[in-house]
Amino acid sequence: MPKNRQKSFTIIETVISLGIFAIILFLIQFAVQYTNQEKATTNLISYHRMLMQLENNDRAYYWSDEKSQQIYFVSEDKIKQKIFLRLKNHILQLTTSDGGTMPMLAAVDKFKLTVNDNKVHFSLLFDSGENYETTLLLAKYQPKEE
């Protein structure tokens, strides 16, 4: 009489394979958390670098919001040139009234500049949901009287 035996997994094989599967899932979860944390750190570093560029004494930016009710920056070297912050394709850029652009930050959802007590308040929201706010250390532009 022929024996009808089907090959199947034993309990030990099943437990070992489930253990290996759990270890793989744990490693994937750890890698995802690590990359999310690194991305958040990268956004914070990029944000502070952008602030350093805006507040750099060598560039000597001032802010102004004359009649247009739009806040813009003025460099002491180029008084006639206005420098605006704008958001285009999730990239925060410095643009000049002459048409030049300089990318400052990537992956930005929205930003806002407001004036409170003669100081410029800057708030920024990244695509990842991180929100940063600060008061810019820029003086208000005072035209020189000649």
TrEMBL record:
Cited InterPro entries: ComGF, N_methyl_site
Pfam families in the record: ComGF, N_methyl
Domain of life: Bacteria
Membrane-crossing residue ranges in chain numbering: 12-32
GO cellular component, one term: cell surface
BP terms from Gene Ontology: establishment of competence for transformation
Primary location class: other
Record keywords, A-Z: Competence, Membrane, Transmembrane, Transmembrane helix
Cellular localization per UniProt: Cell surface
Protein name: Competence protein ComGF
